[in-house]
Amino acid sequence: MAGLNKNTPTPTALTVHQQSRMLEIDFSDGAAFKLPFELLRVYSPSAEVQGHGPGQEVLQTGKRDVEIVSLEPVGNYAVQPTFSDGHSSGLFAWDYLYHLGVEQDGLWRAYEARLAAAGMNRDAAMPEAGGSACGHHH
Question: Which uninterrupted H or E stretch holds 48?
Answer without folding.
Answer: helix 47-50
